[in-house]
Design a protein that fits this description.
alpha/beta; about 525 residues; single chain
């Protein structure tokens, strides 16, 4: 009985080598694997000695030999295969243990890696052996993951070391893991060779790794899991998902809401605090003040009713002061303590974390690397039978004054905050900002005028002198009429409607400043 070992990841190599040797297997190994087994005192034969042929081309050709592949691929119940093996003097190889050169790690760690350096990390012999053993899985155990070693040994011992007595399903599971391993590897190599100017190639493979099973899906009767994208792009690799420091396990909706909240605050250079409910901002503040002050102001001036049970996101490190504010701050609506599902930030101090833990054993506390909005990564969303893909909605807008007087610097700052926030609100979206605070928001309505009504109603008496943003153009001047009568000082919209002139005439009538960006921010 023979086992062939050729691994880059040498986790538990001494364990699997010793166990197989004790079970009576002759071990064959290449290069570093051979050396590691020898150093562990485990008897092993080099592949070169086994094949009778030295390694060639600086190690590029080691296992690409008929004695290796015939040993793996021969069908044990096929008489012709048996005769050919006997005539050639070849022996069967019963177990293949292999994992591959670190192509992803090498390429993603070095943005300036040359094509020649990257090519040398493309494994050829490994995938060939793995695919051969997985193809012949009925007779050969194909092992690509060190996590499987202990179960493989247990299965061999339970089957009295007879591979044909090991369950078909277990052998098939090992083969499936192997084909996944080689497919993901090939997808990363393919990604590296992509023409970066071809944003949407004719064929695209997305490699996914499961991060965790979730408490449930969008609803409790649905199952859910969270996957991250495996990539050679360092920007994507830097954002592999949040680290949870405390609280209950995450659900599907928790991930969605935390993602929406953190993306919003990461869109701002200045300090920013957002409270999100169902992926929409109900409270928001941005400015030079501390995140504790911004949090209090956002809650006092925003939709505190909706904030209850929401997600808090900040784009600065959480410290003890902020943690104390979160714990002590009462709802401005009913003087009750605020309840939040999640708090997410780029980082958190040790004393801040300990203080927040005292708030609730269930409060989920997450940290995550800040999003890079200028990255070339793409969005994917599932539809029945496929995926839609698009580039990230990131574009610097020009604020062109179309009508009315130029806003002062503070007003223009508020208008720009409103414009950034509206990008993160479900369409049709209207946001109203005043003094760096979100005071009104209308989202997800089938028509824009209803969103405008909701935003103005939410702002209440504070609406006077507010600055309003619309994620798309006004198809009719009715929303502008409502804003004007409410006391809005300035409006920003993309422009481009066939009725733009009617909107312009309305703002002129009321003396409102109107800016166009030429950019739309639909978010469905």
């Amino acid at each position: 009985m023979k086992a062939l070992l050729a691994v880059y990841d040498k986790t538990d190599l001494d364990y699997i080598g010793r166990e197989l040797y004790d079970l009576g297997y002759e071990l064959l190994a290449t290069g570093g694997t051979f050396k590691k087994l020898q150093e562990s005192g485990i008897p092993v034969v080099s592949v070169s000695d086994f094949t009778g042929h030295m390694e060639l081309l600086g190690g590029r050709v080691k296992t690409l030999h008929p004695k290796i592949h015939a040993g793996i691929l021969n069908r044990r119940d096929n008489n012709q295969d048996a005769d050919e093996m006997t005539d050639a003097g070849y022996e069967s190889i019963d177990i293949v243990i292999c994992n591959l050169y670190p192509f992803q790690e090498t390429v993603s760690a070095n943005k300036n890696i040359s094509i020649d350096e990257a090519v040398e990390q493309i494994d050829i012999g490994g995938p060939t052996m793995l695919r051969a053993s997985a193809k012949n899985f009925k007779y050969v155990l194909s092992i690509s993951n060190p996590k499987s070693y202990k179960q493989v040994i247990a299965e061999l011992k339970n089957a009295n070391n007879k591979i044909d007595k090991i369950s078909f399903d277990f052998k098939k599971k090992l083969a499936q893991e192997t084909f996944l391993h080689t497919a993901q590897y090939d997808s990363l190599v393919s990604e590296f060779f992509e023409n970066k100017e071809d944003v949407f190639p004719d064929k695209k493979i997305i490699a996914l790794n499961k991060v965790q099973d979730l408490r449930y899906g969008e609803n409790p009767h649905q199952l859910g899991a969270f996957y991250n994208i495996e990539s050679v792009n360092p920007t994507i690799n830097d954002n592999t998902g949040p680290i949870q420091h405390h609280g209950k396990a995450m659900s599907y909706v928790n991930i969605l809401d935390a993602d929406a909240a953190f993306k919003l605050v990461c869109d701002f250079e200045e300090s920013a605090v957002a409270i999100i409910k169902h992926t929409n901002a109900c409270c928001f503040a941005a400015g030079s003040e501390s995140i504790s002050s911004l949090y209090s102001a956002a809650l006092d001036n925003g939709d505190a009713v909706s904030a209850f049970g929401g997600i808090v996101a900040v784009n600065r490190i959480i410290d003890k002061e902020f943690a104390e504010t979160i714990r002590k701050k009462l709802s401005p609506i009913n003087e009750s303590k605020m309840f939040f599902e999640i708090i997410i930030a780029p980082d958190i101090t040790a004393d801040g974390l300990e203080h927040l833990k005292k708030k609730s054993k269930d409060l989920r506390i997450l940290t995550m690397n800040k999003y890079d909005w200028q990255s070339s990564s793409k969005d994917y969303i599932s539809v029945q039978g496929g995926f839609l893909s698009q580039t990230i909605d990131f574009a610097e807008a020009n604020f062109d004054l179309i009508s009315g007087k130029e806003l002062n610097s503070n007003q223009l700052k508020d208008l720009k905050i409103a414009w950034k926030v509206v990008k993160h609100v479900k369409s049709n979206a209207i946001t109203i900002v005043k003094n760096g605070l979100l005071i009104g928001m209308g989202a997800g309505q089938p028509n824009r005028v209803e969103s405008a009504k909701l935003a103005i109603l939410q702002a209440g008496e504070n609406v006077t002198s507010g600055l309003l943003a619309s994620d798309a153009f006004f198809p009719f001047p009715d929303s502008v009429e409502l804003a004007a009568k409410a006391g809005i000082d300035g409006i920003v919209q993309p422009g481009g409607s066939i009725r733009d002139e009617e909107t312009i005439q309305t703002v002129k009538k009321y003396g409102i400043s109107l800016y166009h960006t030429g950019i739309r921010h639909f978010r469905h």
